[in-house]
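Bug #2210: token dump truncated for TetR family transcriptional regulator?
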Amino acid sequence: MTPLTDKAPKFTRDLPEARRKQLIEATARSLARHGMEGTTVRVVAAEAGVSPGLVRHHFAGMHDLIAETYRWTGKEVDRALRASLAAAEQTPEAQLRAFVDSSFSEPMLDTDLLGVWLTFWSLTRTDPEIHAIHGKVYAGYRRRLEELIRELAVERKLKVDARVASLAFTALLDGLWLEHCLDASTFTAREAAMIAHDWVDNLIAGRFLAGAKQALSA
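Reproduced locally. Full output below:
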């Protein structure tokens, strides 16, 4: 994943798509450092080393640029996860554990990534386009986990609702990641991974939701 803190090179006579990418990366860095309120066309232009007019030439406005930055960030996170999964053994359990290890290692623990992600999350409730992008980004993430959990259930002959399990696993990973990035003194990345791996252990042992089902049937 591209580090958000890397300073972009000055523009040259590149193709329009390359210029758009540089502006998107500059926007991500600005969001990480200054938040939504401090990210303006002029700030992004200065970060990229271009004139404000060039930003307006490639994007309709800041809303358009923010939306494209969310799409790009989602793709970068997905690319990092895919690289970790590709390097792991191609079994459902190994892939799930690769998800865990990737979630609590660089570049996922980049604090600038947290700053960008929090901006997008804050806009999700009020901006329809950002809400739609958020839904698409997370749908792909959960779908991959759901497929792996379903494959694991078939392989281990487990009775598991893969959709519900993927929701639980996603919430666990996101919660641990968010809390660690907000305050790394609360627990270490290794401890976060250990908690998530324990969840996978319980899933394999057939203990996922077992307690809840017993309580509901009582």
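Output looks complete on our side. The CA atoms of residues 146 and 166 lie 5 Å apart. Marking as cannot-reproduce; reopen if the truncation happens again.
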